[in-house]
Amino acid sequence: MKLIFATHNQGKLVEMKEILKGLDLEVLSAEEVGVRDEIEEDADTCEGNALKKARYVARQTGQWAVADDSGIFINALNGAPGVHSARWSNGKPLVDFTLEKMKNYNDRNAYFLSVAALVSPKGKEWVFQGKINGRITREPAGIDRPKLPYDLIFQPKGYDKTFAQMTDQQKNSLSHRGEAFRKLREFLVTNYESNECTNYE
Q1: What CATH number does residue 37 fall under?
Q2: Do 201 and 122 touch, CB atoms closer than 8 A?
Q3: pTM to 2 decimals?
Q4: How many structural domains does the chain have?
Q5: Which of 24, 68, 69, 160 is catalytic?
Q6: pLDDT tens digit string along 111-156?
Q7: Number of H helices, E strands in the chain
């Protein structure tokens, strides 16, 4: 079974491959199968964006497709940037822009939300959600992962380090995206390995 991940973000692709490791799946990026279009993420919710991307790639390839959309929701900023997390800084570095916005706030509480959408070749759809609470630090810390800037300033609740200070394994074990993709993995194990997924192809 091929599973096409509707992303051009290599950081996300590495995370997903790690979480799905051990399954009888060939996980490929959209670019690897010739889908190079940038799909506009113009939905009002993470779920809407994830479904839009997965539907497009499933139609273009005739394969199972998965996409995710994530956002960081900051209490002091009334939930901003939320669904606009990747594109709210008007071209400025996201970490610097966010810390500047937060400089006068003592309330640093925030949460990450991630939605993974799976679409079958026949158009059947499933959605898996992950969420983690935490806080925005006052300074960036850790190793900057490709295209995952908020990892530098998000400290999950109960931990004294940012995502960027954790190993990939540590982060995946508790992150919002890790939770969403573990739910996806559980679905695939239950349905694909029992041949139920063939009913949706």
Answers
A1: 3.90.950.10
A2: yes
A3: 0.85
A4: 1
A5: 69
A6: 999 999 999 999 999 999 999 999 999 999 999 988 889 999 999 9
A7: 5, 7
